[in-house]
């Protein structure tokens, strides 16, 4: 605080390392510039800063011969940055997982305790697992900044977060969670609320394509209960790195709350203090690679669609015609009573592999038939 308030402190020989924890990108950017200009090392927990400005900050640090710590930007206590340093020079194929412990906590409480979204979010706020304004968490912006920064490091390219529109968690309901658990099973058992099929998790994916493009998406997703990510609960984070020459490595640990951030910051502080004592300057990525982001609408995979269809003759036929026009093939379908109206049925459908835009365009055309009501949701499926 003294360093912030008194400009002369910038050049003080008593200050070796500046730690920034404001949570405000503009302030973090200014403090980084002032630290490097004054030949100080710099540590930040600001993932938004690193998602947007990592290339320029790394260049400033290199120019002044200083070190930079950013372990706390992603994953809390899990050492994901150390893992990426370990894989330096490897051909990374993908990074995926759950990077936001706050939203994972909300989904866990909804699934295990039957809480509504609002009730679960209030519980997370009471435990101080989200910011006073939780919008960046629940709208997926926090997770987007994290996966964009990780992707920039993995493929040495500064990506633009604005090219990715995250899907937040606010549209997911208890019905989605109940139905997802029965998808892919022999039948839904009325005497059991949950099945062995899928869990819904707040996922991110960054995946290398064959044409020098990187697919990145941020969304709640149906995750197969055979996938270890489906078992990650509460404020835990879990991130998986998959390389061409090795088995995927998964790193898991607490990712939300003050203690997780403090642990990551202190790890950076110990490392940078040791480097300073020994005169080590750690190489920082140039982020000048030639990769580009894939258009998110071109993302291809299996999809889940929930909507309410009018319970009258011809509705199913019209639905089928829309799917045929968009070359969509149903893999699973479950129909249930619509709690909002006796005139409609709640439909839960999964599709064989297709692009996101095929499913979105089809769902928009369904609206135009006049036979669909209420909110709908489209989610990716991860096996």
Automatic annotation (TrEMBL):
Query: Molecular function (GO) terms listed?
Result: homoserine dehydrogenase activity
* A GO BP entry: threonine biosynthetic process
InterPro entries hit by this protein: ACT_dom, HDH_cat, NAD(P)-bd_dom_sf
What's in the keyword line of the UniProt record? Oxidoreductase
- Reported EC number(s) for this entry are 1.1.1.3
Tell me which residues make up the ACT domain: 304-380
Superkingdom is Bacteria
Q: Name one Pfam family in it.
A: Homoserine_dh
Record-linked PANTHER family? HOMOSERINE DEHYDROGENASE
Its family remark reads:
Belongs to the homoserine dehydrogenase family.
Protein name as annotated: homoserine dehydrogenase
- Organism this protein belongs to: Candidatus Woesebacteria bacterium GW2011_GWB1_38_5b
């Amino acid at each position: 605080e003294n360093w912030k308030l008194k400009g002369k402190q910038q050049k003080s020989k008593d200050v070796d390392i500046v730690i920034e924890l404001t949570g405000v990108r503009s302030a973090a950017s200014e403090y980084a510039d002032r630290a490097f200009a004054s030949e100080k090392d710099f540590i930040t927990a600001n993932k938004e800063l690193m998602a947007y400005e990592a290339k320029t900050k790394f260049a400033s640090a290199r120019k002044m011969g200083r070190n930079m710590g950013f372990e706390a930007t992603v994953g809390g206590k899990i050492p994901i940055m150390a893992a990426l340093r370990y894989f330096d020079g490897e051909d990374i194929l993908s990074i995926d997982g759950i990077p936001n412990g706050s939203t994972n906590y909300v989904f866990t409480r909804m699934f295990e305790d039957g809480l509504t979204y609002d009730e679960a979010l209030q519980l997370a706020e009471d435990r101080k697992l989200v910011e006073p304004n939780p919008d960046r968490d629940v709208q997926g912006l926090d997770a987007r900044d994290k996966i964009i920064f990780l992707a920039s490091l993995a493929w040495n390219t500064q990506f633009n977060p604005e090219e990715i529109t995250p899907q937040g968690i606010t549209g997911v309901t208890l019905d989605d969670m109940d139905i997802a658990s029965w998808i892919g099973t022999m039948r839904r058992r009325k005497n059991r609320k949950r099945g062995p099929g899928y869990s819904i998790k707040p996922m991110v994916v960054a995946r290398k394509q064959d044409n020098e493009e990187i697919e990145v998406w941020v969304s709640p997703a149906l995750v197969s209960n055979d996938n270890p990510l489906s078992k990650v609960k509460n404020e835990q984070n879990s991130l998986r790195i998959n390389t061409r020459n090795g088995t995927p490595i998964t790193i898991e640990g607490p990712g939300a709350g003050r203690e997780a951030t403090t642990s990551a910051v202190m790890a950076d502080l110990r490392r940078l203090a040791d480097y300073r004592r020994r005169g080590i300057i750690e190489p920082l990525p140039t982020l000048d690679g030639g990769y580009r982001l894939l258009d998110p609408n071109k993302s291809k995979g299996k999809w889940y669609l929930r909507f309410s269809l009018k319970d009258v003759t011809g509705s199913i036929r019209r639905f089928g015609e829309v799917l045929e026009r968009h070359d969509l093939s149903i893999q699973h379908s479950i129909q249930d009573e619509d709690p909002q109206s006796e005139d409609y049925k709640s439909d839960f459908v999964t599709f064989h592999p297709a692009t996101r835009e095929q499913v979105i365009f089809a769902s928009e055309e369904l609206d135009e038939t006049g036979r669909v009501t209420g909110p709908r949701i489209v989610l990716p499926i991860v096996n």
